[in-house]
Write a structure and sequence with these properties.
This protein has 384 residues and is α/β, with parallel strands linked by helices. The chain is built from 16 helices and twelve strands. Helix 6 links the parallel strand 6 and strand 7. Helix 5 runs parallel beside helix 6, helix 6 runs parallel beside helix 10 and helix 7 packs parallel to helix 10.
């Protein structure tokens, strides 16, 4: 039985992780859970799984739950997340599943690595911001990072058993998001509500907006660089509207290997939870005859400047990926709150990237300070 320490339990990925676990109760034991502020959702999970520890992002939510469930130890904020991630530090059979959204996932991941806990990672920002710290630390502590993103899971599967020296390039596909068929002129009037209607996937609000701007794909390029040790110049993105080919790997002999499946996150989640084994899951099989043609198109950096910003941040390194993420996180929040327009997201990001005073090898404190500084600057500038 594998012990699970689940961060982001009430979010889209967290709920699907729990679905897989519920289908296989003899294989997993829930030890800790976290959520941000979803009291009803967490109450249900506490009553169902009886975790040893619970962390809430919001201190007020933690207080309410503490009164509601006095028999359960409950913490909050970063300290609470860290404790949830590192609970039972001597557990040799534990897996941290990091399904948090945003910068808050970085520190708990680092602390879990430091106690030697392997990680199933769905928190993009951990590697986007801190990949240069995370991967060497994981190697030092002999920790394995299992990617949960469908694209990185696909690359992981395609690369299994292969010599990395024979890889010519990685190819990450993109569905294009809610506005893939609109021109840039048409994007001037789009709404947050329209942006949340993804054509293929059902996800959280923030990542769905990132899909519409293509920042999500830029983040995945940065993640792939860190996970697989491939330079950004050898990572390509393609528009694939059908969303069945999740990623491809091209080798030096001209062969291309692809991972193809229904667009359902339960498959990469199951693969990460059970690796190195495969397990039957509720994902329906893909009927290729019914699916018909699969199409691929190049992604235009003019149409999707956020994708170009991500490649730029990866190339420049240092603080640039942190600034990219912080500016995007704040800009998307403001868009969802109807305080800026869709195209202002990229304008805000560009403005912050143009002001970076770079540091070659930033520490965790450097990253945390930069994140807070960028977000505060955007709020002051945008809402004044």
């Amino acid at each position: 039985m594998k012990n699970i320490y689940l961060l982001g339990a009430t979010g889209s990925i967290g709920r699907q992780v729990l679905e897989i676990i519920d289908r296989n109760p003899d294989d997993f034991c829930i030890v800790t859970l976290s959520a941000n502020s979803d009291l009803d959702g967490m109450s249900t999970l506490i009553e169902k799984y009886r975790p040893e520890y619970v962390a809430m992002g919001q201190p007020d939510a933690a207080k309410i739950l503490s009164n509601r469930y006095p028999q359960t130890e409950i913490g909050s904020d970063t300290a609470g997340l860290v404790k949830a991630a590192t609970f039972n530090p001597l557990d040799q059979n534990g897996l941290l599943v990091n399904a948090l959204v945003g910068m808050c996932g970085l520190v708990p991941t680092i602390k879990a690595i430091e106690i030697g806990r392997s990680i199933a990672l769905a928190n993009k920002e951990t590697l986007v911001i801190g990949g240069d710290l995370i991967m060497p630390l994981a190697r030092k502590h002999h920790v394995t990072i299992y990617p949960i993103d469908s694209e990185h899971s696909a690359l992981w599967q395609c690369l299994k058993g292969e010599d990395m020296n024979t890889v010519k390039r990685l190819i990450i596909t993109a569905s294009g998001g809610a506005f893939r068929d609109l021109s840039r002129e048409q994007l001037t009037t789009v709404t947050a509500e329209a942006a949340l209607k993804h054509p293929s996937w059902s996800m959280g609000a923030k990542i769905t907006i990132d899909c519409a701007t293509m920042m999500n794909k830029g983040f995945e390029v940065i993640e792939a660089h860190h996970l697989f040790g491939i330079s950004g110049s050898k990572i390509q993105t393609l528009l694939h509207k059908e969303s069945y080919v999740h990623s491809l790997v091209e080798f030096i002999d001209g062969s291309i290997i692809a991972q193809i499946a229904e667009h359902d996150m339960r498959l990469p989640i199951s693969y990460a939870l059970y690796y190195p084994f495969r397990k039957a899951n509720p994902v329906p099989p893909l009927n290729l005859a019914k699916t018909g043609k699969l199409t691929f198109e190049p992604l235009d950096f003019h149409r999707y400047p956020c994708l170009a910003y991500a490649y730029e941040a990866l190339e420049k390194g240092g603080l640039y990926p942190c600034v990219l993420n912080a500016a995007n996180e704040m800009a998307v929040q403001l868009f969802l709150e109807h305080k800026v327009s869709f195209l202002e997201i990229e304008t805000i990001i560009r403005g912050q990237m143009d002001q970076v005073t770079n540091i070659a090898n930033p520490t965790v404190d450097d990253l945390l300070i930069t994140d807070a500084t960028v977000k505060e600057a955007i709020l002051i500038t945008t809402l004044k």
